[in-house]
Each structure stands twice: as C-alpha cells, then as structure tokens.
Input
Amino acid sequence: MAEDVAPQEDLTDEGGVRTLHLKVLRKQWQVVAVQVIATLALLWLYLQMGDTFGSCSPQHVDDSGNSLWCPALDHTLTLQGFENMMRGESGDPDWQLPFPDFLTGVGNEGPGRYYVPLLLCGMVAGGWVFLNFQTPQRRRQVYLGVLVGLILFLAGRMLLGWFWGMLYHWDLYWPFSVDPARNHAVTLVYPLTVYSQVFLLAIYFVPVWTGLMGIWGLSRRMIGWSLGTVLVYLGLYALLSFESVMVYFDIGLAPLASQVGTATALGGLVSPEIWPLLLMALLMLIYSESGFASIRHLEYAFRLPESCKKDPEYVNQFDNMLNGHLVHTVGIFFAVALCTMLALKFDDLLLDLVSLFGVSQWSGQVQESLELRLTYGKVISGMLFLIFVAGLRFVVPWQRITGFFETYIPKLALGRD
Amino acid sequence: MWTRKAALMMTSGISLVLVGMMMSNFQLMVIGIAFISFLAINSWVTGHGELDIVRTLSADNLYKGDDLYVELAITNSARRRTQLLEVFDNVPHEMKLRSGLNYMRINLGPGQTTRIRYVLRCPLRGHFSLGPISLRYRNTFNLYSTEMFVDHRSDLIVFPQVRDVEEAMVRSRTPKMYTGAMTLRTPGPGTEFYSLRQYVPGDPFKSINWKAYARTGELMVNEKCRDAVTDVFILLDSRDVSRIGTVLKNPLEMGTVAAASLASYFIQRRDSVALAVYDDRLSFLPADGGDKQYFKILSSLAGVAPKGNMPLQAVTNALSPRFSRGSPVFIISSLEGDGTVPHAVRDLAGRNHEVIVLSPSSTDYERLVSRVPRMSYEVMKLERQNRLTALAGFGARVIDWMPDVELSQALLQVKLS
Output
C-alpha cells in the first residue's frame, strides 16, 4: 500500500463527508447497536446464570440448620462467609466488611444481588476504555498513579505510624509486636480486607468486566477470557453437581433437573426446565458473535489505507456489511432459538406420528416407551431434526425469495411515486 | 467450505451433547444442540459470485515507472444479495500499489453496483495481465466460506523508459550524424544549405535568396541537401549473462532503455530503425519508420528476457544480407562471455558500416549485488578496458556505460578509433 498506509490520524467528518476512521465509526449507530447487543446479551447471560446457578442445594445445611457455603454463582455467599470468618478471628461480633452491603448486594435476594456490582463493573470497564483513548503518556501516568495510590493505601498508614512511633519512643523496633502501642501491622488489616473484598467481587464478576472491556475496548483477548470463564464455570458446575461425583464429594451445589417436564413455556414450545438453559446458550452465542463482529468490522476499517477510508464506495459497503450483520443477528438467532426449541420437542412429534399408525405391537411399544421422553431419546431425536433442518437449504430457496422482495419492492415503490 | 470456527463449533457441540448425555446434564446438552442448530441455520445463507465485473485501465500501454489507474465496476447481476463477499483483484507482483486498495468487502443487493479504484506503479517493463478477480464469500458469523474466480483479465504492456538523447547526439562530434546527409550529398528537399543556383521558372518564391539577388542583380535560389532516409540497426544483447545486477539495474534493463531511446530519436527524425534481439535465438524486426514501427519496437523490448548464449557473429552473419549498405549499426551489449564480438565488429566495419558499441559495464553491475574483492575488480576492469580498446581498434565507436551515468551523458563518451 506504499506510502498511502500511514499511521491512522484522528480525523472526524471532513466537511460532512463520512469516512471510515475509528473515531467516526465508534459513533456510528450500527457499530454502537452491535456493541449494545453484545453488552445486553452479556449482562442478561450473567443474570440468567445467577438465577440458575446462584443458589446452593436446600439440603446443604449444618447441624443447626444454617445454610453452608457452596461454590454457587453467588458472591454474597462468599462475602458473608468471609465476614463471618473475620468476625471469628477478631472476636468482635459487630465486625463488618469495609464496603457497605448496598454496594456488594449482600442481603438482597434474586437478581438484586447483582445489579450494583454489575453497575460497578460497567464503570470500571468504562474507565478502562476511556483511558485507552488517552495518549500513551497519560495512560502511563494514570497507571502509575493508581499503583502508587494502592501501595500507599496498603502500607502508608503503617509506615507513617511506625516511623512516628520510633521517633516517639526514640527506639528502633519492628512494626509487629505484642505491645499494642508498637504493633503497627494491625493497620494493614483494613486495606487488606478492602482488597480481599474487591478481589472476591472481581473473581465472581470476571465474565462481566472482562466482557465489557472486550466489547467496548475492542479486545478479542478480553472477550475470550469472558467466554472462557463462563464455559469453565458451567463445566465445573456440571461436574461437581454430577450425581456420581456428589456421592463422594458433595459440596452442596443444586443439580439441574435430569428429566424434562411438559412443554408449557412460550405457548407450549419448550418446557420450563429447558427454557433458561436454552436462553443462556443463545445469549452466549449472541454475546460472542456480536462482540467479535464489532471488532472484526472495525479492524477491517482500521486496516484500510487512508484513501479508501475517504472513498464513498468503501463507506457504503461498510454500511451494507453492518446492516447485513444486524439483520442476520436478529433473523438467524430467532431462527436458531425456534429451531432448537423444535428440536427439543421433536420427540413429541415422533410419538404423535407413531400413534398415527394405529394399534400394533411396535407402535404400542414405542408409544409406551419412556425412553423418548428421557435424555437420550430427546437428544437423538433433536439431532435428527437438526439434520433435517440443515438439509432444508437444498429445498427452500429463501434467499431467492428475499432477493425477489429486495429487487421488486423498491421498484414498485418508485412506480407509485 | 467450513471455516475453522465452524469445525470447532461442530466438534464442541457434539462433545457437549455427548458429555451432557453421559452426565445427564441438560445445560451442556442444550448448549451443544444450540451450537449445532446455529450451524444448521447458518448453512441456509450462502453468497454467490454472479457478478458483472468491468475493469477499466487508464492506459493499455505505458512506460516503466508510470502510474496506472484501475477502476473495477462490480455489479450484482443476480436477484439475491451477494452477502459478505471479499473482492480481490489479482495484480502482478511486479507492480506496486501506490494509492487505494485492490481489495474490498462488499454486500451488494440485487442490481447494485460498486467501484474499486486504485493506482499501481509499474517499476518493471514487460507484458502483464491484471486479473482474474478472486471472490471469497464469508458467512456473517464467519462459519462458511467459498472461494470463486471471475476470469476477467486486462492485458497491459509496460514499455522501457525512453530517455531524451537528442542533445547528446547534437553535441557529439558528428552533428546529425546519420540523417541522410551523411552519405547522400545531393541537392533536394531538406533543411541544410547545399548551394546557390540561378532561378528557373517553377522554383518556389520562398527559396529565392534576396540578398544574393541584391548583390548580383540576378535571381538566385537556395538549394538544400536532400534529407534521405537512413536505416539504423540496433542489436540488443539479451543473453543470460546480461542479467547480472539487480532487478532494476542490470545490463539488459539499461540496454532496453538505450534501444528504446535510440529508436525514439531516429524514428522522430524520419529514419528507419531495425531491431535485432539475440538471446537463445535471434528476433529481428525489419527496418521501418513511423509510429507503428515505434510501437512494435517498444512492444518487442518490453518482452525481452535474459536467456541463452547466442554469439554476436552468428547474429551479424545471419543479418548481413539485410543490412543496408553503409548504414549505422548500434551494438548494445555488456560484451561478456562472447569471444566473437571483435570478429563481428571487424566484419561490420569492413563492410563500411558505422559501428557504435554501447556497453553497460557488467563489472560494475555485479558490484551492486555482491562484494567483489578490489583486486579482482581491478583485474576485471582492466580486461574489460582491453576488450573495449580492441574493439575501438577495429574501427568501432565504443561507449563504456557505467551504472550511475545517464544515457545522454554516456553517449557523449564516444571513443573514436
């Protein structure tokens, strides 16, 4: 691309002409829409996960009937456990963690536990993204300032008290001692509990803050971390709540239903046990596809040489791509949801079909078989349905149908004018 | 074709379904089925390459180092969207993109058109072809891709550069050395003064010498030398040995520039120019004048490539019946690896031809690409000097052309025997 490919400048609209510079594209409604879709999917996914995996088994109680800690997706359980531990250590029954409960969601029930921490995650991610827009020098200054602030918050009070104590006592001594007047290390407890509380919150909300940073900071690595932690958590949860594992190692996780009830949700399309699980799977797909797509499109625009960024043809085609992406996001994910629901209900259709054959030994056996209603039958019939759906591409020329509308509807509209 | 992402998704989907079935975990199964459903639905959407593509070039022929403006008009001739399509115009690797880009991602609706414009620099002479156009359809979510070609090609000839040699020739020791008057000292239509004679009826008034009339009292007219057309023969050495040096600077490249420049100069002066290129065989373009001949010579020079090892004497022997009597012969050769050169030059000079040897110094071109020890260089240089002196002794005008010397400058260094 010769000398045409120069480091990108921060150009805005030049005399009303749209360009493909990042600063302009970041405000373009299609790009923002894709990023908002990814963000909403991520937040909804986390809330849905909290709803499904956010509580321990009701049987997981101690001898006194108090609920015990378990690795459910509920940070308040861990924070309360940490607080109880610190109370026991300090001997103060009124000892409390530094952050107030309304910030951490402790004491709330249901999704109320997550709202404020999610907001905090959003603010942290927003700050990080804002910082990324600054000059490298300013970024370095801010990072250094935050680091120094954290170190001072941790050790500043102790160091000041220690040096003052040595001056006051006119003696050299270590900062930890049985003598309360010379035990300055105790001042480390407060900052350490603050850091611990932040750390616990950060661990539980890793998928959210990394995901938000990835979406708005255009980082594939961060989105990868976010998705990876979600999948790892789901895998661990499945393993730790597996019946054969729980016989030997029960840590109180509530297992998911192993059988599916009658489809009553969404007008009889899906059973209430499946719906939240399906919703999570779809939200995960929407989040990953939209998050990565915004990066992919912006990366393409970024790599274009300067002359192409100002070329109206490139700008128009970029708009077309984004519009196409939005249409596909809505259309395809709606179809995927419908198709998956039908796939999971396909066993019922098979049973109904068998019943049409009338009364025979074979049909009777199949109808009475519980196998189809259980896991294996449901999944195998679901897979059969998906193979059928994949084969439909050779039968239904729906692209030609949409193309027909795209070709002739504008002509009809023009004809009326 | 499935992308790596699709293959990974399918593998993950099946694995999750199987693991979910083993562990009776509906969450994993549903995620797996959703993945497969996502693939099945996406397989419905396919792009196409039914495009009308027209490539327009700013010129079909141009000189080495010139810029070529290319425009690619792409129209979706089908009645459905192209979906996300990558268009890449294949450009010869010898050409460099100067501005714009030969690549665009498009999403054209039915009947829509877009244009790709870019500028190429052509640093090497030759016969080139732009195209075919590579198309790659990518699914919106990057799951499937299909590669296609549109076999649309545009041929292009890049001529060698033509340098201005007129001044050099005028300033040489034999002004206007070949244009007719050299051998035909007869009166006729021309530009140079020949003699005065008495006016006879029918002479044009503009040729009357009024000063002579005033002096002698008789009408006198100026007679001019007849500008007869001379045949100029250019013999270009294109043997394998002439590739010594860099891609842009080697005896053959310099030789083509010299041949093109000389041809341009003599054809502009209404002389006839013949070109013989010898490599592993002899290509001969008979002497002719005019723009057509000029185009033929440039086209022939554009396609010259180093190969073979034909001796010069074989060339002169083969062409001897075609050489016009007394016509000037230019030999453009590095004179390396050919022991027949002195004999060939002696034969030509003996047949009363004006022989000019323009010899790019291959010893110095070799130094551009490899380190030659000083002693070896001096020895090679001395051998070359002896060779050139011997040729001068046979009656040729010899020009030792160094790499960093302009052609017009080099032509001033004619050694007279």
